[in-house]
């Protein structure tokens, strides 16, 4: 299969592209920057969709970037980076003489656990120093997924004809934030008892964005399991051990 991956240069995209190539698929990325194996968004808009059987969009400004203030300009960037790239892909698909058979968008997934990126890359230093712990009360749910499983679910959705509709990209074993902190401490062999107060989270991320970390949701991947996807990391402990090893 020839797969086009918007935002495929990122944390999840790199792992997805590697998995797809390993399974014999041909992958072309869409990026803001030109480079080998990619086209730019401008090229996509100007020249149309390259021949492909499936398209995925992962492009988007990182909403939890702790280095960016949650002001109007950043909020617009977060939104437009997703909407504009999705619109560009949708337009190109509509104009294509042979549109792809599969089209996957990634929006609501759990915190993605993988090496060298994502939210966990910001947590590792304090936890390694023994300064980690639950965020806020720690009672909020903290949906998570191992990056290999997110790439696996996306690949499964592309390869299996029967997979349609919305799939929750989370692991089946739900955890509260306190349980997550405990499991990360155990994986690192460090205590994880120092809570991060809500006021600090609100000061760093802004009150509105802090809600994402302070008020979690319990998410169950019922449809994902029903499609026959088999998780490599259904449980939190082994997933974290693999990431920090
Ligand atoms: N990582 C997670 O824990 C997590 C959790 C839930 C949902 N997600 C969602 O999954 C998707 C992929 O996540 P990720 O962690 O792989 O993201 P990422 O590495 O932060 O970014 C993916 C790619 O998006 C492109 N991008 C960044 N800012 C952009 C902008 N302003 N305009 C256009 N393109 C931009 C970049 O590609 P170029 O520089 O090549 O253009 C980047 O490589 C995102 O939509 C994210 O919201 C991720």
Number of domains: 2
Number of helices: 10
User: Which oligomeric form is depicted?
Assistant: single chain
Name the CATH superfamily assignment of the largest domain. NAD(P)-binding Rossmann-like Domain
Number of strands: 7
The radius of gyration computed from the alpha-carbon positions, rounded to a whole number of angstroms, is 19 Å
Bin the strand percentage. 5-15%
Task: Find the structural class using helix and strand composition.
Answer: alpha/beta
Briefly, what is this?
This protein is of the alpha/beta class.
Provide key terms for this protein:
single chain, Rossmann fold, 2 domains, two-stranded parallel sheet, 11% strand, binds NADP nicotinamide-adenine-dinucleotide phosphate
């Amino acid at each position: 299969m020839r797969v086009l991956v918007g935002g495929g240069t990122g944390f999840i995209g790199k792992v997805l592209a590697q998995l797809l190539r390993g399974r014999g698929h041909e992958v072309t990325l869409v990026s803001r920057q030109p480079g080998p194996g990619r086209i730019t968004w401008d090229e996509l808009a100007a020249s149309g969709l390259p021949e492909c059987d499936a398209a995925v969009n992962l492009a988007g400004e990182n909403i939890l970037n702790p280095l960016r203030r949650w002001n109007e300009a950043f909020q617009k960037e977060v939104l437009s980076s997703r909407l504009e790239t999705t619109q560009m892909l949708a337009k190109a698909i509509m104009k294509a003489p042979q549109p792809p058979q599969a089209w996957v968008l990634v929006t609501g997934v759990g915190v993605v656990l993988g090496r060298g990126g994502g939210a966990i890359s910001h947590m590792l230093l304090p936890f390694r120093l023994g300064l980690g712990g639950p965020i806020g009360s720690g009672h909020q749910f903290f949906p998570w997924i191992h990056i290999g499983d997110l790439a696996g679910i996306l690949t499964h959705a592309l390869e299996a004809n029967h997979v349609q509709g919305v799939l929750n990209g989370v692991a089946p074993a739900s955890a509260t934030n306190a349980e997550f902190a405990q499991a990360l401490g155990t994986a690192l062999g460090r205590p994880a008892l120092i809570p991060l107060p809500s006021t600090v989270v609100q000061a760093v991320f802004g009150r509105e964005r802090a809600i994402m970390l302070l008020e979690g949701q319990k998410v169950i991947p019922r449809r994902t399991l029903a499609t026959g996807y088999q998780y490599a990391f259904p449980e939190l402990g082994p997933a974290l051990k693999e990431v920090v090893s």
